[in-house]
């Protein structure tokens, strides 16, 4: 969630942004932690957390927790959509496009190129690629599968949940890669995929809307996409842009194989066109 007492127009250090992201996305956990626990969790010093509290206008860490607690009010999807409309006094396409540009710029600022490069390498060299997504994220999973399959990559979808997910990952082994989309809270299915990956030896990639993840929630490659603040309507613009970027980078690496497959698709379409 976004906190009104935090002035986002100010300049914050990377460590402070990390603290802010943790509080916004793990509010309930934060409220039960002391300053030392927050510092240890994020790999920063107690003094850094204390300075952050004062930078936001709070007297100290205790005052920071009080203000966070006072503003910690949840809202559902309908509330997020109505607030998105209120920001522009009703829907306005120009405003919406400008908002998406801001999300793209934010993603560009914080995304780690090295993580993207690892993802591209994993896909390009994989024997098989498995993709998982549930709820709205399943649309992103389907898009990525469609793009990769057209390049001749052996790719398949893992069922979104239930006991079928076990059957989906049971055959995954070293040389394979599993990509899971968990843009908000990490699902139990994604946790299963990451946990079993450490045992089975396949590579894992997580698409996430959160910069901070604890160790058990981290994959071999972690891709961050910014989709708005916690209490805002979450757009799919930046995830789709990053997916397309990955597809183009993979194509560049396996261009010969990809061209052969795409040409064959073209030939078959002409042959069986009615």
Automatic annotation (TrEMBL):
GO biological process, one term: carbohydrate derivative metabolic process
Protein name, per record: MurR/RpiR family transcriptional regulator
InterPro entries the UniProt entry points to: Homeodomain-like_sf, HTH_RpiR, RpiR-like, RpiR-like_SIS, SIS_dom, SIS_dom_sf, WH-like_DNA-bd_sf
GO MF terms held by the record: carbohydrate derivative binding; DNA binding; DNA-binding transcription factor activity
Keywords of the record: DNA-binding, Transcription, Transcription regulation
Chloroplast in keyword set: no
Keyword Transcription regulation: yes
Residue intervals of the HTH rpiR-type domain: 1-75
Organism, as annotated: Peptacetobacter hominis
PANTHER family: GLUCOKINASE
Family matches, as Pfam families: HTH_6, SIS
Lineage: Bacteria, Bacillati, Bacillota, Clostridia, Peptostreptococcales
Location of the SIS domain: 119-264
């Amino acid at each position: 969630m976004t906190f009104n007492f935090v002035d986002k127009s100010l300049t914050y250090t990377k460590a402070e942004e990390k603290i802010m992201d943790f509080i916004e996305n793990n509010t309930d956990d934060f409220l039960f932690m002391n300053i030392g626990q927050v510092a240890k969790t994020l790999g920063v010093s107690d003094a850094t957390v204390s300075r952050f509290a004062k930078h936001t206008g709070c007297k100290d860490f205790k005052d920071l927790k009080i203000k966070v607690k006072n503003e910690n009010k949840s809202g559902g999807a309908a509330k997020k959509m109505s607030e998105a409309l209120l920001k522009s006094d009703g829907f306005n396409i120009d405003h919406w496009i400008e908002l998406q540009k801001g999300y793209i710029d934010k993603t560009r600022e914080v995304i780690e190129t090295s993580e993207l490069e690892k993802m591209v390498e994993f896909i390009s060299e994989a024997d098989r690629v498995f993709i998982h997504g549930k709820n709205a994220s399943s649309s992103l999973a389907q898009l990525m599968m469609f793009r990769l399959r057209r390049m001749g990559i052996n790719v398949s979808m893992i069922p979104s949940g239930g006991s079928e997910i076990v059957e989906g990952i049971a055959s995954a082994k070293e040389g394979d890669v599993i990509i899971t989309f968990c843009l908000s809270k990490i699902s139990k299915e994604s946790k299963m995929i990451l946990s079993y990956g450490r045992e089975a030896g396949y590579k894992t990639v997580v698409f996430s809307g959160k910069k901070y993840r604890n160790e058990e929630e981290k994959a071999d490659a972690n891709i961050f996409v910014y989709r708005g603040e916690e209490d805002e309507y979450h757009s799919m613009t930046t995830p789709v842009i990053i997916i397309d970027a990955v597809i183009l980078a993979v194509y560049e690496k396996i261009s010969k194989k990809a061209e052969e497959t795409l040409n064959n698709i073209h030939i078959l379409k002409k042959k069986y066109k009615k």
